[in-house]
Design goal:
Layout lengths: L1 H13 L2 H18 L10 H13 L4 H20 L21 H5 L7 H10 L3 H13 L3 H4 L7 E2 L4 E8 L2 E11 L2 H11 L3 H6 L21 H15 L4 E4 L5 E3 L3 H14 L4 H8 L4 H8 L4 H11 L4
Helix pairs in contact: 1-2, 2-4, 3-4, 6-11, 7-9, 7-12, 13-14
Length: about 325
């Protein structure tokens, strides 16, 4: 269809490769589902809602359906501008914002680690490097991809702070950094790792290729994201507190305790302790406070009940 070729050509010229790939997949999925029902130009609100229902019933997470619907809406905005359709049918759908949960959200009522769970994880670490990884994620709230990019010269051990390159959408933002902080307990682990030979033992034969990264492996002078994921999974299994939430479409089990759960825990515990959300947004590297509020401040009912009893007036 010529209009789709023109639209995707425009996306390729003006948007990122990731956006182009996403728009191609969504357009193909929608057209395949639409086949025999209506033409692309006859789609209305009811048709789109049927497609959304089909995706949900097919096992897609609500948030994934929302993202796909937004991608489809971007196409229809262009078609409306080109007078190919009278209006964007997706703008009339109010239910899109309700699709904010991930599949993990649906399977657990507590989206953070308790302090007791964290301490259990630390106790279960059988190597210094595992302890370093677990404490780093807990203390700083950094994304896993940010963690593996930390270098030794980014660490200010006197002020117990780390300068972190912020990523957004799986890509590092140009010249965008932020400072995160850590507790004395992690400082002691850092000293053992950096000053007492812990890191050097992992470098081994790769010592000549040392790039100065904090996290290293025997195979490479920097740790990859999937290795951090493996360490978190292994420690959680050995601690006996891992939970399988569901099995995804490819047949892989999805666990509760993963690297990103530490980041959610970082936000929740600081908020519970009274940190203003504006400060938390800066520490987490978010561009907007609404992102922090919507995605990282998930409380249990007993948390809310406790807060009410703490802050309610005495009469």
């Amino acid at each position: 269809m010529e209009v789709l070729v023109e639209y995707l050509g425009q996306v390729e010229a003006w948007q990122s490769i990731h956006t182009l790939r996403n728009r191609k997949v969504v357009t193909r999925q929608f057209c395949e589902w639409l086949d025999g029902r209506k033409t692309l130009f006859e789609v209305d609100k009811r048709t789109v809602k049927r497609w959304m229902t089909y995706l949900l019933n097919d096992g897609y997470a609500p948030r994934s359906v929302r993202q796909k619907t937004y991608a489809l809406s971007a196409m229809y905005r262009e078609l409306e501008d080109w007078n190919e359709v009278p209006e964007n049918p997706i703008e009339q759908i109010d239910e899109i914002e309700k699709l904010s949960q991930t599949r993990l959200d649906e399977h657990t009522d507590r989206q953070y680690l308790t302090i007791e769970e964290y301490e259990t994880l630390v106790d279960a670490c059988d190597t210094l490097r595992d302890t370093l990884v677990i404490q780093l994620l807990w203390n700083t709230g950094v994304r896993v991809q940010e963690a593996v990019s930390i270098t030794e010269d980014a660490i200010d051990r006197e002020n117990r702070s780390i300068e972190v390159e912020t990523i957004k959408g799986n890509k590092f933002e140009s010249s965008k950094t932020r400072t995160v902080y850590y507790k004395r307990s992690f400082g002691r682990t850092l000293r053992r790792w950096l000053d007492e030979g812990g890191r050097n033992r992992y470098l081994g034969a790769n010592n000549g290729d040392d790039e100065g990264h904090l996290l290293v492996t025997r195979e490479a002078p920097t740790m990859f994201v999937n290795r951090v994921t493996e360490i978190v999974r292994k420690v959680a299994d050995e601690a006996g507190i891992q939970t399988e939430l569901y099995v995804d479409q490819s047949g892989r089990p999805r666990n509760r305790i993963v690297g990103h759960l530490f980041r959610k825990s970082y936000g929740v515990h600081r908020t519970k302790n009274g940190m203003p959300i504006a400060y938390l947004t800066e520490l987490m590297g978010h561009s907007d406070m609404e992102i922090t509020r919507e995605h990282y401040l998930k409380f249990r009912e007993d948390d809310i009940q406790e807060a009410e009893r703490t802050y309610a007036p005495g009469v």
